[in-house]
Amino acid sequence: MARNESKILIIAGTGYIGSYMVKASIKLGHPTYVYSRPNSSKSELLNEFESMGAVIVNGELKDHEELVSVLKEVDVVISAVAYPQRFLPSDFGCEEDKISVLPPFQAFLDKKKKIRRAIEAANIPYTFVSANCFGAYFINYLLRPYEQREEITSQLPVLNFEEDIGIYTIKVATDPRACNRVVLYRPSTNIISQLELISLWEKKTGRTFKKIHVSEEEIVTLSKTLPDPSNIPVSILHSVFIKGVTMNFDIGENDIEASVLYPDVKFTTVDELLDIFLYNPPKPAHAAFE
C-alpha cells in the first residue's frame, strides 16, 4: 500500500451521498470498505462498487461485535447514515454548531450535535464536515428540470456538486491538517441566490419561468402544521433560502475552508453544474429524515 493510502470504511455507502463517498474513495486509490445490510435492495449498486474494487461487508448497525471487528481493520470511518466513528460523523450539511433554525430542523440537528459532543468527550480523532447544500439535489428540487415546468417558486445558499463533496471528504478524512477541526465547503464560485440560479437556468435553456413568491410567514406556518417528518424539508428551505444560514457566520479560528487546503482541486461551479443538467442531468433524489 502506498504511504498516502488509508483503509476507509463507509457506513451507508449505498445511500444518496454515501455512494459519492465510495466512488471518490476508490478514485483516490484508498482500499474502500462498504458496510451494508444483508439482502440489501441496492444489489446492483453494490455489484458496481465491487467491480470498482470495493470490499462489501454485510452487517447490521445493531450488530455490535461485527461492526467493532470491521472498525479494527480500517484507518478511517465515514458515516453517511441519515442520523448520525479519525471519525467523520453524518454531518455533510449546515454547520450545526453555528446556526439557529426552525424547531423541526433544529431537533434534527440537535441529534447530530449530540454525536459531536460524544466524540469530543471520548477524545476520538475526528473531522466534522460542513458541506452545505448538495448542489444536484437542490437544483432538482428547486428548478425541476425533469418536469419541464414553466413555474418556479421563489424563495444565499452554497451549492456544491455531490461528486466534489465526495472527493473533498475523502481527502480531509486522511489529511492530518483536518484532524479535530471543522472543514467547511464554501467556495466563492458556488455562493448564489435562488433568483440568480433561476436567471442562469433561463439563459441556458432559452426559457422564461413564472416566479411564484412564497412568504416567510407561509413557510413558518407549514413548519408548524405539517406532520413529522414532512415539516423538516420546509424548515431547511427556510434556513437556507430565507435566513441564509450557510453564509451568515464567520469561519472560526480553528475551522478551515476546504479550497484553502487543496488549491489544486477545483470545485465544480454552479454554472458548470447547470451545464451538466442540460446534457446529462443527475436523477432526482429524496432525503430521508425518519
Automatic annotation (TrEMBL):
Domain NmrA-like, chain residue ranges per copy: 5-273
Keyword Lyase attributed: no
Record keywords: NADP, Oxidoreductase
Coiled coil: none
UniProt keyword DNA-binding present: no
Gene Ontology MF, one: oxidoreductase activity
Record's protein name: Isoflavone reductase-like protein P3
